[in-house]
Write a structure and sequence with these properties.
By secondary structure, the protein is an alpha/beta fold. The chain has 3 helices and 21 strands. It is 11% helix and 23% strand. The longest helix has 15 residues.
Length: 286
C-alpha cells in the first residue's frame, strides 16, 4: 500500500512539472529577424523556428551544447547582444554566430570540421583565439575585435582558405607569431590596430589577395617581410601612430605610394570598423 502511495505521488509530480519554456519573438525586423529581449535562458529553453534570432539583453549563464541543440537547424544566424553570456558553444549548423558585449570569455568549437559557419564575431573578454578555430573550414570573417587577447599564433588559421577578413584590433596583443609558411589565399583584410605590438614579421604569410592592412596605434619600428612583391593588390595600409624607423618608413611609403596605395588614415580608439577611419596629414617616424 505504501509503495502505491509513493508511486502515485511520483506520477503526480511528473505530470504537474512545467513543460520546457518556448521562446517567442518580442518583435521582428523587416528582414524577419526575430528579437527576443530581456529573458534568462536555461538548458531547457526551446527556441522558435526562425532563420535569424537575436537575443537582446538576455542572460545565458552557459550557452552549452545542450542549450544550442534547442536552436532549430533551420536557424542560420544567431546573435547574443548586450546581455550576459560568459561561455558559448558554436552550434555546427549556424552560418553566422555573433556575441557582442556579453562578458564572453570562453568560446567552444567542436574538434570536428565544420563546413557551415561563415561568420564568427565575438567581443568580450577572450584571452586567446578560440581553440579549434581551424575547424571552421567555411569561415569568411573572424572578428575578435575588443577582447583581451595577448598572444596570437597565426598558424591557428591554417587551412581556412575562404577566410577574407581577420580582425584582431583593440586587444592586448604583444606578440604575433608565424614560424612556418601560412597560405591564406582568400585573405583581403587584416586588422591588428590598437594593440601593444613592438615587432611584426609577415614574411611567412602568403596572402596574395591582401587588400587592406591596419596596424595603427601600436609600437612598431618596422614590419618584417612587408611589403612583399605578392601584395600587389593592396589598396590601403594604415600605419599611423607607431614608432617607425624613418629609413624603413620612407622606403615603405615610397613603394606603397608608387603603387597607389592609400596610407594617410587611421582607426581611432574603440573603433573596429573601417567606416570609423580618420584622415591624417602625415605619418611620423623616429
Amino acid at each position: 500500500m505504501t509503495q502505491l502511495v509513493v508511486l502515485s505521488l511520483i506520477i503526480v509530480i511528473v505530470s504537474t512539472a512545467p513543460p520546457p519554456s518556448t521562446l517567442t519573438c518580442s518583435r521582428q525586423d523587416q528582414d524577419q529577424a526575430c528579437h527576443i529581449e530581456g529573458l534568462t535562458l536555461d538548458p531547457s529553453t526551446v527556441f522558435p523556428e526562425e532563420p535569424i534570432i537575436h537575443l537582446d539583453n538576455c542572460t545565458v549563464e552557459d550557452f552549452s551544447p545542450q542549450l544550442a541543440a534547442n536552436v532549430p537547424d533551420s536557424t542560420k544566424e544567431l546573435s547574443i547582444l548586450d546581455g550576459f553570456a560568459p561561455k558559448v558553444f558554436v552550434k555546427p549548423t549556424l552560418k553566422s554566430f555573433t556575441v557582442l558585449r556579453t562578458d564572453t570569455a570562453d568560446v567552444q568549437i567542436n574538434p570536428e570540421d565544420n563546413f557551415n559557419l561563415e561568420v564568427l564575431d565575438i567581443e568580450g573578454h577572450l584571452r586567446s583565439v578560440p581553440v579549434n578555430v581551424h575547424r571552421l573550414k567555411a569561415l569568411v570573417v573572424l572578428d575578435l575585435c575588443e577582447n583581451e587577447i595577448e598572444q596570437v599564433d597565426l598558424s591557428q588559421l591554417d587551412g581556412l582558405n575562404s577566410l577574407r577578413k581577420v580582425n584582431l584590433g583593440h586587444n592586448n596583443i604583444h606578440s604575433v607569431s608565424l614560424t612556418k609558411e601560412l597560405n591564406l589565399p582568400g585573405l583581403e583584410e587584416l586588422f591588428l590596430h590598437g594593440n601593444d605590438l613592438t615587432t611584426l614579421d609577415l614574411t611567412n604569410l602568403k596572402a596574395d589577395s591582401l587588400q587592406r592592412l591596419y596596424v595603427s596605434q601600436n609600437h612598431l619600428l618596422r614590419i618584417g617581410g612587408f611589403p612583399a612583391p605578392e601584395h600587389n593588390k593592396l589598396t590601403r595600409v594604415d600605419l599611423y601612430l607607431n614608432k617607425w624607423n624613418c629609413e624603413w618608413l620612407e622606403s615603405t611609403l615610397r613603394v606603397l605610394n608608387g603603387n597607389g596605395v592609400e596610407t594617410l588614415s587611421y582607426l581611432p580608439v574603440t573603433v573596429c570598423n573601417e567606416s570609423g577611419s580618420v584622415r591624417v596629414d602625415a605619418i611620423g617616424c623616429e
